[in-house]
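[#protein-structures] MJ: dropping Thioredoxin here for a structure pass
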Amino acid sequence: MNNSGTVTLNEGNFEEEVTRSSKPVLVDFWAEWCGPCKLIAPLLDEIAKEKGDAVKVAKVDVDQNQSLSARYNIRAIPTLLFFKDGQLRDQVTGMTSKKDLLGRIEALA
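AK: finished. structure tokens for Thioredoxin:
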């Protein structure tokens, strides 16, 4: 699921890509078997392409990264976490609109 401007995250690169990032990071916790995850993925890909200079869009496969899912208390997917300066600032669980996501990203600026 990494064919746009998104970064694939795992336990090994999470700290570097998210908590040490110089720009805000939107992290999508998803799974291959999750229908809503597949519906929101194109929106995230568009945001990554359109706003890539202002925000990093990253994805965590919950099946392959269970410790990250537990660390951030992910109970339902898709869950989108918004980080700025290494701190969790916002969260959305389930489907939402591109407009809502862009508004949340802009609020981080």
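MJ: nice. The mean pLDDT is 94.
AK: one more thing. The CA atoms of residues 22 and 68 lie 21 Å apart.
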